[in-house]
Specification:
Helix content: 55-70%
Largest sheet: 3 strands, mixed
Strand content: 5-15%
Number of domains: 1
Strand order of the largest sheet: 1-3-2
Order of helices and strands: HHHHEEEHHHHHHEE
Structural class: mainly alpha
Radius of gyration: 22 Å
Distance between the termini: 58 Å
Number of strands: 5
Shape: elongated
Length: 315
């Protein structure tokens, strides 16, 4: 009974994941090249689509009872020329699904645990550190209010941690909270600190906290697909670029923001598992010399960026 349930449910989801993400990202790449896209907001949205293709396909097939037993293996397509290749594909994909089933179980289990732990860890941060009030850091809160008002965002809460490295991210869906480490605040100049706060406000404006949390969960659940990590990393980088564009518009100080990016990179933890529990809200794949160098150069060279009320940015 269990074997039948796995074959008719798990195997099909694995097949949809491997094939759907592979062809999905391939199609996104072709769209990039064809349209010559240079808008990070649109790029991030396009790169998110392959992450939802497998679960969408599975739900549709389950609701409409499509391919409940891999019907294509019968070779009865009505087109003789297609029977053999389609039957071969189904046979190979079923074999791959059997091999990947243990990895899928591990991946989905870890994804659920990690998503839940990230929510718990963020709430624990608030309880442990408390909120920062204007009486304690008047300049910091005044700056946060100013950059928030510029884009019509309700001033978010702010907490400060005792981490000795750069900690800077936003969490929360309805009531977002910005997290900064005291060490980072201490080494940043005022203009740089304004840029960092503006960058986090830009993420709030774009609702990236929820977007990243969902995308991270989907990536973790489909970690057995060879292209998912690549696509997710590209998506996060484009999300960061979109927030960079809004930051430049808010502050009008690209050089200060570029300097802040370098300082954050230098202070970032180099361990892969540092703050692993917060990964769903602060995904930072590829935050290495090449990536940060490209972002810094892009910020310095960026033309003036206009910001709409929806959180999009366009040159």
């Amino acid at each position: 009974m269990v074997s039948i349930l796995i074959q008719e449910n798990v195997h099909h989801f694995i097949i949809y994941t491997v094939t759907g993400t592979f062809f999905g990202y391939g199609l996104v790449y072709l769209v990039y090249r064809w349209l010559k896209l240079d808008n990070p907001r649109l790029k991030a949205q396009l790169l998110f689509i392959p992450l939802i293709i497998p679960i969408s396909t599975y739900v549709i097939s389950y609701v409409f009872h499509v391919n409940s037993r891999c019907l294509l293996t019968t070779g009865n397509t009505g087109l003789t020329i297609l029977d053999r290749p389609i039957t071969g594909f189904c046979t190979v994909s079923n074999a791959v699904a059997i091999i990947l089933t243990p990895l899928f179980v591990l991946a989905i289990s870890m994804a659920i645990i990690k998503a839940g732990v990230s929510l718990w860890a963020c709430r624990r941060l608030v309880k442990r550190n408390g909120l920062v009030y204007e009486e304690e850091y008047p300049t910091l809160i005044t700056t946060l209010k100013r950059v928030s008002n510029k884009v019509g965002v309700t001033t978010p809460d702010l907490i400060m941690t005792d981490r000795k490295y750069a900690q800077c991210f936003t969490f929360g869906f309805r009531n977002p909270v910005i997290v900064l480490s005291k060490k980072l605040v201490e080494i940043l100049e005022q203009d740089e600190l304004e840029a960092v706060l503006a960058h986090e406000v830009a993420h709030i404006m774009r609702k990236d906290s929820l977007f990243n949390w969902v995308a991270q969960f989907l990536r973790d659940a489909m970690l057995f697909s060879p292209v998912v990590v690549w696509g997710f990393n590209k998506m996060v980088n484009e999300t960061e670029k979109a927030a960079d564009d809004i930051t430049i518009r808010i502050t009008e100080k690209p050089l200060a923001f570029a300097q802040a990016l370098i300082k954050v990179w230098r202070m970032s933890p180099k361990s892969l598992f540092r703050e692993f529990s917060l990964d769903n809200f602060s995904p930072n794949p590829g935050f290495a010399t090449g990536v940060i160098g490209h972002r810094v150069q892009r910020v310095i060279d960026a033309p003036e960026v206009q910001v709409s009320s929806s959180g999009s940015a366009a040159a």
